[in-house]
Amino acid sequence: MTPAEPLTHIALPQLIRLQADARALKLPSARQVRSRQAGLQRSPRRGRGMAFAEVRQYQPGDDIRSIDWRVTARRQSPHTKLYEEERERPVLLLCDLGPSLFFASTGAYKQVRCAQVAAILAWLALWSGDQVGGLVFDGHKLTVQRPARRKKSVLQLLDTLASQQRIQGPGTESPTATPGADLDTALSEARRVAHTGSRIFVISDFMHITGDTSRLLGSLARHNTVSALQIVDPLERQLPDTGRFAIAGEDGPVWFDGSNPRFQRAYAEKVTAHQAMLDECFRTAGVQPATVMTGDEPAIALQALLGPRGHIG
């Protein structure tokens, strides 16, 4: 991380310049897949539709269910329909910029990493010929942008990511979140916005999951490919074992003593319990989890996470 790079807030020009980082990565393009018959070849993406391409003369091995009986009757010889996979695939980015993401002990703030990851994925999707859309929520506001295959749409999404980041600490704002601007609400809205067969990335620290989160994720994953990218700061996993530290909170600074064994034990148990609950949430929902640390460069982190077909391992 060089001094010129953003640490607490990233602006629109910097998100636009992430095109350079995105060039080293590649999401799969929406390739046209032509099949002799519907149902023989599995689509590489769950729920993708098959569009009619043309009619040609029946050949041995063709599925009789694909025979076009009207053309057959008119030409007095069997003809079968050919289909091709829909060319455009919607990519939907759910971006959490809530109060808990205005934090980092190393690298860049979680809200910066969220915006950077989303920007890189948006550029990759656009270059692959896919539609790009997103939902950005910050605890006070939920902004929805429907998928479209235009550079203007990507720029609008990046502008939203830049403008909805926090610039001042949570202590300067009302601690009461606005109803309808949290993760569960965004997941519910995504179900309404997403088309069947979409590639969906949920980018959040998942600090505030509820009993409904798994169900909402599972509902999205039923007809789409969903990845959960968890933004994590090392301090959230393990506290320093010595020293006295303060963390800014909504009600003022919170102090803790790293050398206190009881506090360390209680903290470790809470972290372990939350992560276990989160892992079970992802497993039950059937989504693909991955982790991006605040100390990681986003392009390098995504390079390790994106497989040859763009799926996160």
How would you sum up this structure, described in words?
With 313 residues, the chain is of the alpha/beta class. The chain folds into two domains: 12-28 and 88-305, von Willebrand factor, type A domain (Rossmann fold); 34-85, no CATH class. The chain contains ten helices and eleven strands. The strands form three sheets. A six-stranded mixed beta sheet has the order 6-5-4-7-8-11, sandwiched between helices. Strand 9 and strand 10 form a beta hairpin. Helix 7 packs parallel to helix 9. The model is unreliable at 28-48, 172-176 and 309-313 (pLDDT under 50).
Outline of the structure:
By secondary structure, the chain is α/β, with parallel strands linked by helices. The chain is built from ten helices and eleven strands. It has helices spanning 12-16, 19-22, 69-75, 110-127, 151-163, 183-193, 213-221, 234-237, 261-285, 298-305, and strands spanning 34-35, 50-57, 79-85, 90-96, 131-137, 142-148, 199-204, 225-232, 244-249, 252-257, 288-293.
